[in-house]
Amino acid sequence: MIPRHVAILSFEGPDRYASIGGLGTRVTQLARALGAAGHDVQLLFVGDPHATPVESGDPGVTLRRWSQWVSSQFPRNCYDGETAKIHDWESSVPAWIVDELVAPAHARDERVLVISEEWQTANVAIAIDRLARERGVRGALSLMWNANNTYGFDKIHWPTLARAAAITCVSKYMKFELTQWNVHALVIPNGLDPALLDGADREQTEAIRAAFAGQPTCVKVGRFDPDKNWLQAVDAIAELRAGGIPARLIVRGGKEPYGDVVLGRARERQLDVERLAYEGTDWREFARMLGVSQAAVVHVRAFLDEATLYALYAAADVVLANSGKEPFGLVGLEVMAAGGIVVCGATGEEYAEPFVNAIVCDTGDGRELATYLTALFGDPGLAAELRDNGAKTAARYTWSHVLEALERKIAYVDAIAR
Q1: What's the pLDDT tens digit per position in 227-245?
Q2: Domains of the chain
C-alpha cells in the first residue's frame, strides 16, 4: 500500500512563480489526490519568494516553498537561477527528508514514500538514499525518481541514480527514451483532477463560442518551443484559408524568443497577426475582445486562469496540442475533460485514438494537419463523436486510477528492495 507519509520534490508547483508547464499541474494534483485519500503529503517546490514558507494547502497537503532566499534574487520563475537553486536543494533537502520524515517513520516501524521529480532533483534522491543508509533508516524509505521529460538527461549519473531509487516515467514513450540511456523504468501515467470531468463552465464557454461568430477557430496553448510544432499549426491555418476556409488561430504562448519565429512565419504566410491587449482580469472582457478581433492569428499574452482556459478549449472547434515530442500530453486529456476536441502528436499521448477520441498527426507537415481539419470542419457528426469519446477517455485517467497503479508499483519496488 502507499505509505501514509509522502513527500514530493519538484522545482515546479502550485504558485504562479512555479507553474511553468505540465509538471506544476502534475505535482499539485498528485499531492491533492494523495491528501484526499488520507495521506499526509509534503510538497517541496521552488515557490514564490514572497509567499509564506510553509502553508497548509489542500486537505492533507503541506506546501513547503524551498530556496526562497535564492528565489528572491531570481524573480522571474522557479527555473531562474537554476544552478544556485539546485545547489541549495542538494545541500539542504536530503537532511530534512531523512531527519524530519524517514527517521521518525523508522522509529514508528512505518515507511515514507518520497517521489523526486526531474533532473534537477536526481542528486537530491541520490543523497537521500546515501544519508538514509548512513543513519540506518533506509528500510523505512520507498524512494522513486520520476522522469517527465528528457531535459537534463545528460547531467544525470544514471548508474548511481538507479542504485539509489526506483526510476519511473509518465509514458511508454518516456520509457523508450530512458532505454537509450540503458535505464529501465516503471510507467506510472499522469492523471486528471476528477472535478474537470464536469466540463468547462457553461456560461463562459457559450460567451467565448459566441465571440467566434461561427468562424472555424483553432486554439494552441503552450511554450514557444520547436518541439510543440508551432510552425505546423501556422502553416495549416494558411493552407485552410488558401482553400477557402476562413479559419483562425488563437495563440497563448510564453515569453520564449521562439515566439518571434512563430509569428514571423505567420506573416510570411500572409496571415495578419494581432496581439490581444487583454490584462487577464475579467473573462467577459476576454470574450468581448475575441469577438472584436478579426485577425487570422490572435496572440494572447495574458495569463488565463483555469476556468477561462478550459472554456476556451470547449468553445473552440479544435485545440492544437500537436507536439512533435510530447512525453505525456496532459493538455490533451484536459481538453477532452473540458468537452473540447484535441489534435495530438504521435509520441507520448497513448490515450489518443485517431478519429475516435482525437485527431493525431504523424508528421510536422502543415498540410497533414490542414487535411484533417478540413475533414473535421465539414463533418459535424465526427466533431460530436470526438467530443463524446474524448470525455469518456478523460474519465479513465483520473488520479484515483493512477493511485491504484502507483500502489502496485510501490509494492514491487519494496519487494525487490528487501
Answers
A1: 999 999 999 999 999 999 9
A2: 5-191+398-417 (3.40.50.2000), 195-397 (3.40.50.2000)
